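Data deposition worksheet. Section B asks for the primary sequence of the deposited chain exactly as it was used as input, without tags or linkers unless they were present during the calculation. Section C holds the resulting structure in token form. Section D is free text for depositor observations; keep each observation to a single sentence. Incomplete worksheets are returned to the depositor.
Section A, Depositor: J.P.
Section B:
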Amino acid sequence: MNNFAFQTAASAKQVTGAFRDDKQAAYLAGGTTLLDLMKLNVLQPSQLVDINSLPFKGISETADGLRIGAMERMSDVGENPMVMQQYPAVSEALLLAASPQLRNMASIGGNLLQRTRCGYFRDTAFPCNKRQPGSGCPAINGENRNHAILGTSEQCIATYPGDLAVALIALDAVLHLESAKGKARRVPLLDFYLTPGNTPQRETTLEPGELITAVTVPAAAHARKSKYLKVRDRASYAFALVSAAVGLDVQGGIIRSARVALGSVGTKPWRAQAAEQLLVGKAPTEENFRAAAALAVQGANPQKHNAFKVELAQNTLVRALQEVAG
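Section C:
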């Protein structure tokens, strides 16, 4: 771990302004990913700015739906009665993530910015286009069982590993950001994450010095009838091999609205809008669910060790839709 300066933020203006003079600064919230990457020398920030005193907290229901402060802890949001009842996919994604200790520490904003679990990214003995553009991607011809099958490029096949973002993208969540210039903006989470293309080092549209202050989720019938299903190698503390977040509004035996997203199969949380469009106006049958699942993985580009994800993703999605349609 490198030497670094440390300061505690007194205001959002101060913390975003820190980046104007020091582009290598990093925000410290829960630190559950940041400190790991610093110990591995993957990240070497010149200073850490502790943002835990900033007033970006609160879990509330507004006229626009659910609002979650970026500094809320994962466990508090996942166990919130209103979130559990009105947005079950969000609660389930949070409570199936990590371990209880990590959920008690990790913030919502930090969780949405977590980095890939690609072993080549986390081991500086290997080249990695995400760490050093142009150095190569050993995962393409190496161990790639956990890697992406959707949204990949010749530069990077690393999987986005998180749970919460998958559920939030399925339910049309919006991020609230504040910049070093004191400006606030809103970005649909669907547009926030980037596929690697030729710039795998850029993972989101977050600008230098910008801060996530909150996330909002619109209230909707498909949000109240939603589910997050996670398939993993072991039941405790494991990242997903495949996950699915779905929401359905079924009235009179017909699907009026549908939301579908997949996790751990894409280089970013993967919204399957073609699958949603197929489901709307149809009956909630296994035949229709399987047709939607086939569309959800259309264009998949599996590697040597992860071809199983194509079928596993479809089966996971069908099961999630069946359970929520129930």
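Section D:
The mean pLDDT is 95.
The chain is about 30% helix and 20% strand.
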